[in-house]
Each structure stands twice: as structure tokens, then as C-alpha cells.
Design brief:
The structure holds two protein chains of two kinds. Chain A contains eight helices and no strands. By secondary structure, chain A is an all-alpha fold. Classes of the chains: A mainly alpha, B alpha/beta.
């Protein structure tokens, strides 16, 4: 029964945050602040993960393609499509669920426990609109950007690894990148990025917003937010692939 | 004026408040007292709309707050200031930004005017040169005073204080009590204080509502409390031998059998 109560409360939270802002300037400020927190705050880890995942993809694809009949440029095609279709959106968003999701859940949880959310309500401010909505919109704006950066860096990391190990010369890698390129894959990756961004921000906000108790419960809510977000990302990943590819 | 009419509130099967009524007048400190778990915080949260009562209604200046829609409640809430038990200051904002927050949200004043108002209220609660400090850098008493400053910055008609003295030493508690009383009289606001601090009851309690196990057990003023024959109230208020002696002394003062030459300013010094 808890799952139905959670789903109901989650939908009510989403519905409750749709209201007219008390002061548009303050909401804009909060939105920009959240963009900075989510985007700049996660950029470092996204850069590192992307370069390494591209590099590993190149090395492992080369390891598996042992036939002399397959041209080396195929390695670049495989790396490109794997990075664009799966690694950049899904892997990066799973990492972001940990980085951004736990941050959102613990921030809102701390505000709930220390009565800061009550203080906003008493002032006549819709706390869901002021605290949750800017986080979701900021995630929807910033996370797809991070996914695009991850895609570019992932492919570049693959090219770098191919060049450094001597598996694929840069010229052949570049040639492979242009062969059989389907622009729809990029659009599909963006569909995924938007879906995952909504999942990460809204589920984490839900678990943080409704925390009851103290520091221990904030930690539990944060962990739960990350775990549920990851599961939902994987489920949505499969559903999107089944429906849109 | 705030009227509480036959309020009942339950959480699951547990009835926390049962049939509580009270009238809290303008320009005075109205105290809700009781032991921990007696339902005073739940009553206050029902009064400000953080909890919906199961039965009964709350009236602000004769208008039923309970029956209002969200927008109407928001308008009433703009007239409410609240000091929370843990101060509830926004951690990521400085003292100045915390106090300015309601002004930023609800006024279109120029920054200079907002700053003037912030400095005025910070001055009023005796906090100077703390504008740029973060809540984590303040003592408990200072946090409470910033909380009061934020609560009064929009000139509210109603001020709610949830256990304003919790975690404070007796001297700082006295300063906070006096500040709340002065602000109440100065701005002629309806102040509701939720406390189990004996000093607060005797110093600022123009109207005292004593709750016991979710019900109204006694009501009256801090002067009447001395002469009350209610056993539960006496056991709660005058719990120690020292307080019983203090009660005897205050009774002698009130009946004119002993002169009252105590000065609250000297006590604070």
C-alpha cells in the first residue's frame, strides 16, 4: 500500500507546484542558482566519466573485433553509437542521480526537518512552487546539456585512446565517425536526457520534501531517492528504446 | 483577535487535541502552556494552517481561516509572522538576506528602502553588525532574534512564537521574553507564544491557556495563575520547592502584603 500512497503523494506534489509565482524575479534567481548547482556542480565528474567511458569503449570494441575483414573505422562507428545512444544519456544520468539526486533530497530534507519549509508556508509562499519547480526546470535545462557534453567528450576520449594505444589512427577514427551516421540517434539521446532529468529531479525532490524525523531520516531519504531514481532511469531507458527505436 | 473554536485534531487513531476553544486578543501576549506532548505545538500549527483541524474553526478578526481557500489563506498568512523553535533561518542566506527575504518576495520596494527596513528591525532586536553573518555563525539567542526580526519585517498583525526560549540560558530567555512583549505592545499585534518556560508565563502571559493531554485544562492571566486552585496547573507551573516559594512570595506581593521593588532591567544586567 505504501507504494500507492507514495505515487499519489508524488503526483499531488507535482500538481501542487503548478501555481502562480509570488514574485517572478525571486523564482528566476532561484532557477539560475539551481542551474549553477546542478550544471557547474556536476561538470567535473561528467567530464571525467565521459572521457574514460569513450576510451574504454574503443579499447574493448577493438578487442572484440578481431576479424581482418572488418575495417578499423567500424570501431569508431561502434564507439560513436554506443556513446550517443547509451553511455552519454544513461550512464551519465545514473551518475547524476547520485550526485544531483542526493543533493536535492538532502537539501530539501534538511529544510523540512529544520522547519524552513514551514517558514516559507507561513510567509504565504507555495513551498512546492518555490523549492521544487525551479529544481525540475533547471534539471530539464542543464542535464541535456551535460549529456551533449558527455557525448562529445566520450567520442573524443575514444579517439584519444585509439590514437594513444595505436589501435585506430585518428584519421581512420574520424572517417568512421562520419560513416552511417544517423542524426536521429542524437535526438533519441536528448529524449532520454529530458526523461531522465525529470526522473532525477522530481523523485529526489519528493523524497526530500516529505522527510519526517531527523538527520538519520534525511540520510535514508537521500539513499532512497538515488536508488529509486536509478531504477526508474533503467526502466525508462528500456521503455524508450522499445518504443522509439 | 484570534478565536479558536472547538478544535479537534487526530493523527490516525490518536486524538491529539480535543475540543479546545480560546480567544486571543490584540496587543497582548497569549501563551499556550503545557507539558511536552500536551498538544500545544499541534494547536499552534492548526492556528497558522500548517495542519488542518478535523473539527472546529479558527477565526482571524472574525473571518474563518479554516473555511478559506488557498489564496485567501495566503492573504492572511502575509499578516502572520512566526518564530520557530529552531529559528528556521535559511542556512544558505546571510542574516541580512534572511530578514530581507519576505520583503524581496512581497514588496516592490527599491533595494535601499529594503535595506533601511532590514537595518531598522535588526536594530530593534538589538542586532548590529551581523548583516553579513550566516546563521551557522550565530549563537542560539542571536538566531532567535534574527527569527523575530524576519517575523516582524512586514509589520504583521499576528505573531506566533513556538517555544522561543528553548535551548537558551535564563538571562537570554528573559531578553527574548521582554523583546516579544515590547514588540507586541509597540505594534499592537496579537502574539501567541507556545512555551513551557515558567519565567515566560509570569513575565509576558497576559492570557494563559494551559493544555493537559490535548484538552484545555485552565485559562486566565499570569496574575490569576498565582491564585489558581487547579492541581494539575500548580504541579506543572510550580514544580520545584524553589518555584513554590516564589509563588508564595508573588502572592504576598499581589495581595499587597509585601512590596514589589524588583526591576526587570536590573535582572537582565
Amino acid at each position: 500500500m505504501t507504494i500507492f500512497r507514495d505515487i499519489g503523494q508524488y503526483l499531488l506534489m507535482l500538481g501542487g507546484m503548478i501555481s502562480r509565482p509570488e514574485n517572478a524575479k525571486m523564482y528566476w534567481k532561484e532557477f539560475i542558482h539551481q542551474c549553477s548547482e546542478i550544471g557547474i556542480g556536476s561538470l567535473g565528474i561528467v567530464v571525467i566519466i565521459s572521457i574514460f567511458m569513450g576510451a574504454v569503449s574503443t579499447v574493448q570494441t577493438a578487442y572484440q573485433l578481431v576479424s581482418p575483414l572488418i575495417p578499423l573505422s567500424v570501431i569508431a562507428q561502434v564507439v560513436r553509437d554506443t556513446v550517443i545512444l547509451e553511455f552519454a544519456p544513461t550512464l551519465v544520468c545514473i551518475v547524476l542521480a547520485g550526485v544531483v539526486g542526493s543533493k536535492i533530497a538532502s537539501e530539501l530534507g534538511n529544510m523540512r526537518v529544520s522547519e524552513q519549509i514551514d517558514a516559507l508556508e507561513i510567509m504565504g509562499i507555495n513551498s512546492k512552487t518555490y523549492l521544487v519547480l525551479p529544481k525540475i526546470i533547471a534539471a530539464l535545462v542543464v542535464i541535456p546539456m551535460l549529456v551533449i557534453i558527455a557525448g562529445v567528450l566520450g567520442i573524443w576520449g575514444g579517439r584519444l585512446a585509439g590514437s594513444m594505444t595505436g589501435i585506430v589512427p585518428p584519421a581512420i577514427f574520424d572517417q568512421g565517425l562520419l560513416e552511417a551516421f544517423a542524426p536521429y540517434n542524437v535526438i533519441f539521446a536528448l529524449y532520454k536526457a529530458y526523461t531522465f532529468a525529470f526522473i532525477i529531479s522530481s523523485i529526489s525532490a519528493y523524497f526530500g520534501y516529505y522527510v519526517k524525523g531527523g538527520a538519520l531520516e534525511i540520510g535514508r531519504a537521500s539513499t532512497k531517492a538515488v536508488v529509486i531514481s536509478c531504477i526508474m532511469i533503467l526502466f525508462a531507458d528500456y521503455m524508450l528504446a522499445a518504443l522509439l527505436l | 483577535m484570534i478565536e479558536v473554536k472547538n478544535i479537534k485534531k487526530s493523527f490516525g487513531d490518536k486524538v491529539v487535541i480535543e475540543d479546545v476553544s480560546a480567544v486571543m486578543k490584540d496587543g497582548q501576549c497569549n501563551l499556550i502552556i503545557g507539558t511536552s506532548g500536551s498538544g500545544k505545538t499541534v494547536l499552534m500549527k492548526c492556528m497558522v494552517g500548517l495542519f488542518e483541524p478535523d473539527e472546529g474553526e479558527i477565526l482571524y478578526s472574525g473571518e474563518s481561516f479554516t473555511k478559506m481557500n488557498r489564496n485567501e489563506k495566503t492573504e492572511i498568512r502575509k499578516q502572520i509572522g512566526m518564530l520557530f523553535q529552531g529559528s528556521a533561518l535559511f542556512d544558505s542566506l546571510t542574516v541580512q538576506e534572511n530578514v530581507m527575504f519576505p520583503l524581496n518576495m512581497f514588496t516592490t520596494w527599491p533595494t535601499r528602502k529594503k535595506l533601511e527596513r532590514v537595518n531598522e528591525v535588526l536594530d530593534r532586536v538589538n542586532l548590529k553588525d551581523t548583516n553579513k553573518k550566516f546563521p551557522a555563525e550565530l549563537s542560539g539567542g542571536m538566531k532567535k532574534r534574527v527569527g523575530i526580526a524576519r517575523a516582524i519585517v512586514l509589520n504583521p498583525k499576528y505573531l506566533f512564537c513556538d517555544e522561543p526560549n528553548s535551548g537558551l540560558d535564563p538571562q537570554t530567555s528573559l531578553v527574548i521574553d521582554r523583546l516579544i512583549k515590547e514588540i507586541t505592545l509597540e505594534y499592537n499585534i496579537t502574539t501567541v507564544v507556545n512555551t513551557h518556560d515558567m519565567n515566560s508565563v509570569m513575565e509576558v502571559g497576559s492570557y494563559v491557556l494551559y493544555m493537559y493531554q490535548g484538552r484545555k485544562e485552565w485559562e486566565g492571566s499570569n496574575k490569576q495563575i498565582i491564585f489558581s486552585k487547579n492541581q494539575r496547573l500548580n504541579e506543572f507551573i510550580f514544580a520545584s520547592e524553589f518555584l513554590k516559594d516564589a509563588k508564595e512570595m508573588r502572592m504576598l506581593e499581589e495581595t499587597g502584603k509585601m512590596p514589589n521593588d524588583r526591576n526587570i532591567d536590573d535582572m537582565i544586567k
